[in-house]
Amino acid sequence: MVLAEHLGNQVSEATYELMGKARELATALGGLTEVLLLGPSELAAQLSGADIVVSVQDAVLDEYLPEAYERVLSQVLAARSPRLLLMSHATIGLDLGAALSVRWDAPLASYVSALEIEAGLVTATAQILGGKVLADVELPGERAIVTVSGGAFTAAAVQPSGMPEVVSFEPTGLDSLRMSLRRVVEADAGDVDISSAETLVSVGRGIESQDNLEIVLDLAEALGVPLSASRPVVDAGWLPKTRQVGQSGVKVKPRAYLAFGISGAPEHLEGMRDAELIIACNTDPGAPIFSVAHYGTTADLFDLVPELVDKVTR
Amino acid sequence: MVPMKAVPDLVEEIDLTADETGIDPEYLKFVLNEWDAQALEEALLIKDGSGAEVIAVGVSSDTDIDQILYTAIAKGADAAVKLVDSRLAGEPPTAGPRVAERAALVASYLSEVPADLVITGVQASDDPDGQLPSALAALLDLPHASVVVSVEIDGGSVVVRQEFAGGRSHELEVQLPAVIGVQSARQPPRYAPITRIRQAMQAGGLTEMAMSPAPVLSRLGVRRMHKPESTGHAEMLTGNVGEVADQIVALLRSRGLLKG
Question: Quick check: ipTM above 0.90?
Answer without folding.
Answer: no
